[in-house]
Amino acid sequence: MHDGFQNKFDISLPLENLYAIVGVMRDRVGAMATSCLGYGHLGDGNLHLNITSKEYNTEMQGKIYPFVYDWTAQQRGSISAEHGVGMYKSQYIGLSKSKAALSVMRSVKTALDPKGILNPYKVLPPLPSH
């Protein structure tokens, strides 16, 4: 079954708030969405949030991005769970990871991939140029 345009999120949240974002987003996008649902892994707090619409809707996108990431960070969650950061979410990783954590992540990435050839630009945002 194809439900139209899809917005898919792979987030992690504290268990007490695991499913709350689904209700928040249902209220936020209302009838613009054809569906808004979540499923995941109770054991590790991982939630797959899927919000669909018949077609791409600029107004709905404005209600979704970056709200889902901001809300997740406010709940002490992570904007990226089991599927990694990817290219799009790298600009938002600072919402749920501290500068110190990002520095450690860069150090590990550099140690394991000194030439930067493994998934370039898909894990961490580029360092600000001075």
Q: What is this structure, in a nutshell?
A:
This protein is α+β, with helices and mostly antiparallel strands and about 130 residues long. It has helices at about 20-30, 60-65, 65-75, 100-110; strands at about 5-10, 35-40, 45-55.
Q: What topology emerges from the helices and strands here?
A:
Blueprint: E1 5-12, H1 20-29, E2 35-41, E3 46-53, H2 58-64, H3 67-74, H4 99-112
Antiparallel strand pairs: 1-3, 2-3
Write structural notes for this entry.
The protein is α+β, with helices and mostly antiparallel strands and 130 residues long. Helices cover 30% and strands 18% of the residues. The chain has a three-stranded antiparallel β-sheet with strand order 1-3-2, covered by helices on one side. It is globular and about 50 Å long. It starts with a strand and ends in an 18-residue tail after the last helix. The mean pLDDT is 86.
